[in-house]
Amino acid sequence: MTSQAKEEEQYFNLKPAGDYSWTEPASDWDAKYPLNQVIQTESGHTFEMDDTPGAERVRLQHRTGTFTEIQSNGQQIYKIVADKYEIIAKNNNVLIKGVCNITVEGDSVLNIKGDAYTQVEKDCFQTVLGNSRISAKDVRIRSDGDVDIIAGSATGEISLTAAGGVNINGDLNVGGLIAAKQSITSAQNVTAGFKLFSTLGVETLGPIVSAISVFAPLNSGVIVTDARGSMELIRLLFNLHRHPRTSTPIPLM
After folding, report:
1. Nearest CA to 139 among 170, 113, 160?
2. For residues 58 and 40, is the Cβ–Cβ distance under 8 A?
3. For residue 24, what is the DSSP state?
4. How far is the C-alpha of 191 from the C-alpha of 208, rounded, in Å?
5. What is the reported pTM?
6. SS3 247
7. In this structure, are residues 37 and 50 in contact, taking their beta carbons and an 8 Å threshold?
8. 223, pLDDT greater than 90
9. What is the Cα–Cα distance from 106 to 101, expressed in whole angstroms?
10. How far apart are CA 114 and CA 53, in angstroms?
């Protein structure tokens, strides 16, 4: 893995600063008689209005244990021991000026029957400990900067499958091997920094540029061809032509 890939892996492993874990706050009950007014029904429902200095509370509790409590500092606690249903006939507007921390211990389903928009003004982190799948009619990803896709494990691979084709509108820089089970077609030049190798043949209407060699096994029916003819014919003509002083060219092609 390159140093750049390691840096990207470390970037994706970053966690937001701060510990946002939370637990249910304890009740700040500290009632002093006769400042706590309590109404209790026969089945066990209670309604408290506490005016004890420093412990002012309002608490409404169902006999099953479901309750809401407004504590002395103004924070409010809802606790529902069974299911909750909330139905809003029109719009819903929520403003949270602090941290929003949601923990779901079971499955989560978000069903949006219209469009969905998400705007993040800073960084966005998503960690999936299992598999991640996206299914859509069309998928478009746009970045004003770089786009990095990393298969981080030692045997990780990136596979692209298209019923039509994979179109790259820009340069393709490959640090490793390019292997094709069928044809490689180029509208312009094919440039190899070391070797251009084929076991079946190379054909081009333009130049083939290789810093080291263009290789196809001899006597195997394999032909390297450009617009001027086969490379075998060009090699033969080059090797047989004569120089007035040095005879045949050295080295031979």
Report:
1. 160
2. no
3. P
4. 6
5. 0.65
6. strand
7. yes
8. no
9. 16
10. 50
